[in-house]
Design a protein that fits this description.
7 helices, mainly alpha, 96 residues, single chain
């Protein structure tokens, strides 16, 4: 009796994995998840992104800082005044 139930569960699981509507999508999802766990994505990103250049490039931030709808130091109640002053100085600098 127990063997037939476990066999039936196996058949149901097999049918769920390979029925006509999914066509093995769970298997592809499992393979993709395993690849994501095995491959070190951080090292792949390091190949494409020069971290020092990205962190030290103030020009990009200054170029887009005024277009942000909010900024952390402007929204934080403790640093709001300093954030507004910093953005005003940046506006003056860019206006020159």
């Amino acid at each position: 009796m127990e063997n037939t139930k476990s066999l039936e569960k196996y058949k149901n699981a097999k049918n769920a994995l390979f029925d006509e509507t999914t066509k093995g999508v769970p298997i592809y999802a499992l393979i993709t998840a395993l690849i994501c766990l095995i491959i070190p994505f951080r090292s792949i990103l390091k190949v494409f992104i020069n971290l020092r250049e990205a962190l030290n490039d103030e020009r990009r931030y200054k170029k887009f800082a005024l277009s942000f709808s909010s900024d952390y130091d402007k929204e934080n109640p403790l640093t709001k005044k300093q954030g507004i002053i910093r953005l005003l100085k940046l506006q003056i600098e860019l206006a020159r």
